[in-house]
Specification:
This protein has six helices and five strands. The protein is an alpha/beta fold. The chain is globular, with a radius of gyration of 14 Å. The mean pLDDT is 91.
Length: 135
Amino acid sequence: MKVVLDMNILLVSISRKSPFNWIFQKLIDGAFTLCVTTDILLEYEEIIAQHMGKQFARETLDFLLSLEGLERIEKYFFWNLLPNDADDNKFVDCAIASGADYLVTEDKDFRILNSVDFPKVSCLNIAQFRELWAE
């Protein structure tokens, strides 16, 4: 399963003390492939550094880049499907370019994607993503 994690999901899942750490553990365990572009990696590093420090951000990025379950994506088209937060279009474009099964986010601006027929992007929130492993 290919997945794009919005910054808000990765950030809350990194800490072992977080109730959402199961997401990061699933990534480590190879339960899904994380699809990223260079601009997504740069945002991950920037936001993690703001919240947890530069060294932790660098170590987290190095760790992500070492995972077998990481797929680097080159995008060649910008769909601009999120008019309310253009900066988040990088996650949508990555999901489309990678053929990701899901884009996981808690950001309400992504709800507009439910009304877009083409290209189809399946967005899940954390609870919905968790249900994938409920069996």
